[in-house]
Inverse folding.
């Protein structure tokens, strides 16, 4: 199986996340894409995330009826700070016959050499990079110290082209706190969940 992994806070999930997952599924011919919500992202330890139960519930609503999209609860169930190399290693141990593809934005690629065990990440999964609005084209030369030229070329061939969509979770949280519309930026079921549970009332 060709398995894509898309990690994030998903606080809240929005159409940018879903479009990235679908673009990767189609262009990389993936059988499944797993959305992997973090318990405590290593780079966001200074921000209080919405409780995992709410973020998971919104993800469930967002992917309902989409058989190619699933939710991986591993990091949430484990709790605390989880590192990508550990999570990919766990998935690979449970899916030994699967080829893993780790989806990330170009801005994250630039920081990847500073992550925990970046070489191991590049060994466990093919990186699938997508450019985001306002971010330049991916600079794969940054990976030359942590992986092989052959692996970098494989990443280049799997780079994702997707419509640019300037939606962010932080902006959605801000809009909700300011009593502004988030219609058509996240699935309607997620929008209604946010309203019903009084989420994001304060930035």
């Amino acid at each position: 199986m060709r398995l894509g992994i898309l990690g994030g806070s998903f606080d809240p999930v929005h159409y940018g996340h879903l479009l990235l997952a679908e673009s990767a599924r189609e262009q990389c011919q993936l059988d499944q894409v797993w959305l992997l919500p973090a318990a405590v992202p290593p780079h966001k330890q200074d921000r209080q995330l919405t409780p995992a139960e709410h973020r998971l519930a919104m993800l469930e609503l967002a992917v309902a009826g989409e058989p190619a999209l699933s939710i991986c609860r591993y990091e949430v169930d484990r709790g605390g700070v989880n590192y990508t190399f550990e999570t990919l290693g766990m998935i690979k141990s449970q899916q030994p016959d699967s080829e893993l593809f780790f989806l990330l934005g170009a801005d994250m690629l630039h920081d990847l050499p500073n992550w925990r065990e970046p070489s191991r990440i590049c060994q466990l999964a093919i990186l699938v990079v997508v450019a985001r609005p306002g971010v330049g084209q991916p600079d794969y030369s940054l990976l030359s110290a942590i992986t092989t030229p052959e692996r970098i070329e494989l990443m280049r061939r799997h780079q994702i082209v997707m419509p640019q969509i300037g939606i962010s979770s932080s902006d959605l949280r801000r809009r909700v706190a300011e009593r502004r519309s988030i219609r058509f930026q996240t699935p309607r079921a997620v929008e209604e969940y946010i309203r019903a549970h009084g989420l994001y009332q304060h930035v």
User: Anything to note?
Assistant: The chain has nine helices and five strands. The longest strand covers residues 2-8. The mean pLDDT is 93.
